[in-house]
Amino acid sequence: MSAEMTANQSVPSGQPKGLWVLIFTETFERFSHYGMRGLLILYLTTPVALGGMGLTVAKAGAIFGGYLLSIYLFGLSGGQIADKFLGPKRTIFLGGTFIAIGQIMLQIKAMDWLYLSLVLISIGTCLLKPNISASVGKLYAKDDKRRDGAFTMEYMGINIGATIAPFICGYLATQSSFQTWLASHGYSAGAGWSLAFGVSGVGMLMSLVNFLLRRRLIVDVTLEGEPEPKPRGYWFVALLIPVLLAMCWMVIASHQWYVQLLAGALASFGAMFAVQFLVNKGLVPTRSTASSAGNAESQNFTKEDKRRLLVVGMMLCFSMTFWFVFQQAGGTLNLFARDYTDRVLFGWEIPAPWFQSVNALFIVALGPIFVKLWSLRQGKWPSSPIKFALGIMFAALGFFWMVPAALQLESAPWMAFLKNAVGLLPDTQQLDFAPKVGMYWLIGVYFIHTLGELCLSPVGMSYVSKLAPKQIGSQLMGAWFFATGCGSYLAGKAAGMMDSVPLWQLFLVCGAIAMVMSFILWFLVSRLIYRLMGGHS
């Protein structure tokens, strides 16, 4: 172990100091992301007179789904740019810059500017997110038992940002008393939304400053003491980025699923394979050609690598199901909070975006418990595939929990009509035909989904980083986020169906799909993975 690596160990926790740099950076980046996620579909569906865009739920759902898809879809190219050209640190900084610019541009209220802002934020996230997660994995040797705990701690840091963002941004954008105060001081109806998006941009800028000042603490131990390959191909990256921006615009601005999902996926894979073809032909200089021939960047895949890649591919397919259900928090459940939940507490109405913080609060509270649990169960049941299956099962149970709430909404107008019609209530107590349910339904689904998230997401990132061949570590983490994007896109499309499909059917069908996939993974696929991994998984 080199002196630099030894110095990089943090005495109090036994974790590398670079981990805290990455966690702090990602905390503020996630503040930006979750501030955006909690506001976007509400902003799109809010009437123009109140400062929103005034779109229908169906159109807003298509844009929201395209955005959720695009912030992960091109993560494959983001990982490739880091692995082959710029290196993780430069790629992270470039991505953060794009996100900050996109957030600032949201101050301009016009559809074309909205699309451009979302495109910049999406490509920025694709450049930043997989490389931060890959960098966490590279802080540890393959057999380091601290790895799972590190990813869970990263997840806790993420959710500190995710907890704070909806409170601050939701208050600025939607709280009625604050909007009244803005109006009394001569500000327009959309000033609250502009402030909320601006605060998200400031959070991103703070993360960039922290990363730039402390980047040297992030050490890649997988290089085993060798110097990190120098960046190459700046000119090629400068040509590639506009192509990615154009493809991302196609995904977000088109409202047709076959363009967003199918053409978007083909464009993402096409860009990646085209770049790899040019690299293989030696037409583009890469970090690998700048380093020694023995460097991991230039090594071919072994049979063991290929088996590991097959296992990762299977796990990514199942992770899509989880994200399809879980990511409805920003769409379906966000609209449910605004339109169908009684949010009055002690005479004060809680802003709908604040419920986006519930999941993050549970993560922060339960994260240390799961860190300890997975540490105690290291090498024992449950294996990583079974943890995945448990995560998907909890996602299903969360939506099953919401079915009675949706049925209560279906029956409330009829109960009100009957009671009013037969005179069971005096005129002064006539029931409102606009039904709403208690907040405990949303709190319950977020709690159940948090259990699933802690079983699947940090464990999944750890699993991918553990199985990834060194020469494509960032690319494979990009594949993890690609699968997340596909599931998230379906979540956005589900939100767009809220006006056309009974809510109880929507929750029931989504939950049933997740439960079936959980059983298939648990009882069938996990055994295949066990054999592929030589008797351990």
Structural description of this entry:
This protein has helices at 3-7, 17-45, 57-73, 75-86, 88-105, 111-137, 147-174, 176-184, 191-214, 234-253, 257-280, 287-290, 303-326, 332-340, 356-376, 384-421, 440-467, 473-495, 503-532, and strands at 344-345, 348-349. Helix 3 runs antiparallel to helix 10. It is globular. Mean pLDDT is 81; it is low at 1-12, 289-298, 414-419 and 427-433. The protein contains 19 helices and 2 strands. The chain has a single domain (3-295, 302-532), classed as MFS general substrate transporter like domains (Growth Hormone, Chain: A), CATH 1.20.1250.20. Helix content is 73%, strand content 1%. Strands 1-2 form a two-stranded antiparallel ribbon. It starts with a helix and ends in a 5-residue tail after the last helix. By secondary structure, the protein is an all-alpha fold.
